[in-house]
Request: fold
Amino acid sequence: MLLLNGQRLTLDEIERVAQAGDEVGIAPEALVRMAESRAVVVKIVEDGRVVYGVNTGFGKLSDIHIPPKDLEKLQLNLVRSHCCGVGNSLSEAETRAMLLLRANVLAKGLSGARAVVAETLVAMLNNRIHPIIPEKGSVGASGDLAPLAHLTLSAIGEGECWHTKGTRRPSIEALGGANIQPLALQAKEGLALLNGTQAMCSVGGLALWRAQRLAETADKAGAMTLEALLGTPVAFDARIHEARGHQAQVDVAANLRHLLRESEIRNSHLEGDARVQDAYSLRCIPQVHGAVRMALSHAREVIEIETAAATDNPLVFTDTDEVLSGGNFHGAPIAYVLDYAAMALTDLMSISERRIDRLVNPDLNEGLPPFLSRHPGTGSGYMIAHVTAVALLNEAKILAHPACIDNLPTSGGKEDHVSMGMTSALKLRAIVELAGKVLAIELMAAAEGLEHRKPLRPGLGVLAAYEEVRGFVSPLIEDRVLSDDIERLATHLP
Reply:
């Protein structure tokens, strides 16, 4: 069981809860902290002090004082009014990640919410009660208001949740079936659930988790292509990369050397090869793939810091009994790195597409059949698979335009600078899907190229990758529909 204490969570931990359904609990010390912060809020209400988010309106309406008798109605109206999300629903994995991250933030004890609020989210997780959350409608400040409002709507017994086999059911029925009492929100608690960056972190974080694994797959694809094109591993010599000093580049070069070890194909053209060096898409794999890894690692570091960040407003500090209003909900740190990751992953697709072109282009593919067809002319081989890769790359290039540089004021000018971080997360998720398909096409084409180098055997790591591809895609003896092959292999990739 993963015990939440407001601590940093790794993307691996998030993925295990979101995808594998690992059980979650709340650490005892977190329960104590939440009770202490709640006591501060209760005292504010009892003393009649006016504090934003406790007994005031929200946003532009923050100057309006709300009497004690209307505080629960205030929180309920907040949730309902903010449920303005539209579009497709987040996946159940993304929703689970949101429940996890929101509960962990509450466990820090800086939100002023009762422990039962976090406990309810955890109970929903463990009983697989997944709110239906539309993916569009957040500008990333004051955090992901609309997505978190839809999450909270289910916690109070309204709206709908996913049921088995993709069907819907009323949230009140789902909660009742699991013996979970719907939340009756008290002062500050609606705001404690709605302010934050958990939607962009969930969507972006899970996309990053997969992106990092695709970056590892890209090394295999590049090594396979190098072998199929009779390339040289000289450019991967450790001394070259240590001379530059970027660790990720050093790591990729080492991985390539490992994949290419004991290659009969390489030995076959050690002597008498008139070529001096390979094209950039082959020679510079460590530099490009390494830079991609650096970008993804930086984005991961920022997301993992954010998993332990108090991102609602105001925050309750029990050491001084103060409630301070700030802007930790602003998604700028997340938006920047997700846009950065999107650009890096798009460039990974770009270098992969260039390698696909070299595999199929009869002017560049070092004697392989035109378009890898065994019957050129009557057969087109991988000609249109490359066209598909180009189409996917074009889409990714459009999506890679940064969302974080845009701004439109909201909430009557009170929220006059927003992050657009949820847009950054959704774009990255889409690019990850596109990247998986482009890499699948390269793996298929490279495997086909290796067919034409037989009986020579590629490096041991490349051979293992080739055999893995062949477990999903058979050799192209005659032209056939390749769409299913591409989709099947892309689905298999991490």
Remarks:
- The chain is about 55% helix and 5% strand.
- The mean pLDDT is 96.
- Strands lie at 2-4, 24-26, 86-89, 130-131, 134-136, 160-162, 168-170, 315-317, 322-324.
- Residues 264 and 291 are 30 Å apart (CA to CA).
